[in-house]
Write the structure tokens for this entry.
Amino acid sequence: MKLLEYQGKELFEKYGIATPKAVLVRQSVQEVSLSVPLVLKSQVPFGDRKKKGGIVFVEDKASLASELKKLFEKPIDGALPKEVLIEEVASFSQELYLSFSYDTDSRSPVLAVSLQGGSGIDAAKLFPIDLTTGVSGQFFKESLERAGVSNPSVVKIAHSLWEVFEKEQALLAEINPLFVLQDGSCVAGDAKIILDDNVANPSHRPFLDLPGDIAILASGGGASLLNLDILMHYGGNPANYVEYSGNPPASVVEELTVKVLSRPGLKGCWVVGGTANFTDIYETLLGFVQGLRKVDPKPTYPIVIRRDGPRQKEAFAMLKEVAEKEGYDFHLYGPETPMSESGRILVELVSKG
Amino acid sequence: MSILVDENTKVLVQGITGKEGSRAAHEMLAYGTKVLAGVTPGKGGQTTEDGVPVFNSVKEAVAQFPEINTALIVVPPQFVGAAAAESIEADIPLIDILTEKVPVAQVATMIALARKHGVVLVGPSSVGIISPKKGKIGSIGSSELVHTIFSKGNIGVISKSGGMTAEVSRILTDADLGQSTVIGIGGDLLIGADFVDIARLFEKDEDTKAIVIFGEVGGTYEEQLAREMKSGSISKPVVALIAGQFSEKLPQDTVLGHAGAIVSKGRGSAASKIAALKEAGALIADTPEDIPGLVRKALQK
């Protein structure tokens, strides 16, 4: 779970990391008690906000209200901000990059330091942390020195940032840029915090809207990714990404089906999964049918279902009956038809329209 | 031969009295694998329905059964770190973690500890390991399907996805390409044994002639395998199916089907993995059904 910048900065303040003087606004403001120049930052959970027009500098307060209005109306990666953070622009002598994250090369937490603030982790020097010995103040001091930083207040910030990372069970705690002011003190220019979903939000199910016209209900962490690739390989355009493995109850599948199929302009639907080990296929497809009945208008487009696993035969018998009695265009495939073949068939059915 | 699991595998199940733990133990026994003991704190002295004795701690279990050489961990996510520490400190040489959604901080700690003890840690989120006709650990190949999906042979399979271990193996079996060992390494951000660790074991295994991997967008485990192939330390042919190419245009940091499947630009993207593996000499499959043909092609070289 990715925090917004202002949420990250609230955490920073809690752990003793200074942030610029700021005001968070949720609508237009008449007046702010900050001194110009100011920077207005759209609070959306995406990177490269500056490039995407989500960060605006204001030299005089007269233009504040209009710039603010523009920012609230500007979608960034399709999302409008609910908040804008107004900050005083720091006058700094140096910008650094500082973060803690998990590195899949060393398979350990790493401290990443770069003398180029604004550049990402790719330009940074990495210092793996040995969790069996723990982390000492000496480690931060020596690592920063090796990266070319000897300022003791940066060492202190690194220590505090490690506390944020460790105590909040973050996957990433990043300050980019970290402003070093004339007097040597530090201020966090930005905050990027990603919390571990396994701790913060264990029931999280990924769901993404995509620009296509084929709805997908995919099972299996790996198979779901693969099947979207395969659909595109055959020229289909997915309308969403979702994954619902782990023997979900019918009610969960029902809700998901309604969500996925309520989108206008769909031309097909693919219910697909590999050979399930212990997912009750009957239960899953019962949930699908219950959801399908709630979708308005009633889907008349082709629905290709490729499932295999416990109670698959019972499930298909039920689906056949539902298709006959209620008039759905089901195309049912079991283990004899590969997942990818069922995807190809669906793309063909959709293109025939 | 095979790797990690065979007829001599003697298993301890941590969390054996839970629903998933007792099911896994039952199925391992049904496949002919010896499950000598189980651990559930507070339930020591009991015996499971399958007649497996339950102990309060790993220490007590290995005192009674010093021949235990494999631990399967099936405890709730928040207890996995402590459970793994127990079996690592008992120096059980192979530990397979079935539990999903284990906090990453715990995983990082147990990986560091396992390294110190020279213990092979597989998972978390590992569906298990099977050496067909010899033995299995975990919930890989549940039910009677185990006999139709997996068959004995010379192909080593390594997969980040549990479901795809079965899918890839079934496709290989249908094409008369049996498997030496099939391993679900899990799709978490941090994992114990990765593609390289397992490929090194296959490299030394006489019975493994080719390696099939299922990888995904996110992390650098596939890129690391490519690096080892290029350096020559992995010389057996590799066929790779890499999922997640569709995600290229999605916002960075988006987490997909597995916790480690994180949308990445450049390094870590599906395209980067495919390019690196291709350059290192791996054959790339576009669909699972392409795999048998590519394996045969690789074996002819």
